[in-house]
Amino acid sequence: MTGASLKYLIKEGFRNTWTNRMMSIASICVLMSCLVLIGSASMIFLNIDSLLARIEEENVIMVYIADGTPEDQIVQMDADIKACGNILSTEFVSKETAWAQQLETMEEAQAKFFTEISTDIPLPDAYKVTVENLDQFDDTVTKLKALNNIDTIRENKNLAQKLVAIRQGITVIALVIISVLFLISLFIISNTIKLTVYSRRLEISIMKSVGATNSFVRLPFVVEGIILGITSGIISLGLVWGVYELAITQFKDLIDSLGLKALQFIDYALPMLGAFVAIGIISGVGGSLITMRKYLNKEGSEISGV
After folding, report:
1. What is the pLDDT of residue 189?
2. What is the rounded distance in angstroms from the CA atom of residue 58 to the CA atom of residue 248?
3. Which of 27, 159, 256, 289 has its CA 20 to 30 A from that of 123?
4. DSSP of 143-209, one letter per residue?
């Protein structure tokens, strides 16, 4: 195919998009609906994932140090804990600090009683350890227990397991919803393009009769699919952005009262635009190729009889 032919076919794709603008608008609206649903679902799942990440950060392991451990070994334990791997952060909590925090939670009379009855602090020094990956929670706890100068370890294994299960469940649900919506988009775009092809079946038959190759016939429809996909992707991003900001504004008081913080859409705008345009192009081009293959395989036998 020469450069002149390619340029002509691309222009034909743009011309056909405008000529069949009602079909084009229908295709864009259908694809936009699916993309808006995909984008809205994605932002919901991203916010849930962010919330789970914050909860995971609170799911710490308290490593209590045995009494009588020398100061230098207590300091060395920070490096030993980090060497276990899967450690996001460590924080040393002295027994004096822990005891002062404990007294603050008591009533005044109760706190006064405990401070007067004895000057000894009934708490050990400890390290507050935050794990990086909850999937490796059990393995990390096992390694921590094997360290020297450990008195006891306090951890919430059940919460960790529940968080891992919730995260995996959300991931599966998100993938299923996005996959289903993508397949629906591909199906509807394919059928919309099928109507366009059917309305131009005589033109296709004539082109095939005079020796046009399948690629020559197919390319304008592929260009139409790309145009529809890019247009749908850009408009859909704007709609999702608007809906998301509106929802954040409407539920701002509720979000603040729960101590939550919604994600900023601007941080995900470019990746989402890329995903939308990619899905739009794949749906548009895929729908065109699927539909055209069906007609071209007939080699004009059915459509030429019109």
Report:
1. 65
2. 25
3. 159
4. HHHTSTTEEEEE--HHHHHHHHHHHHHHHHHHHHHHHHHHHHHHHHHHHHHHHHHHHTHHHHHHHHH
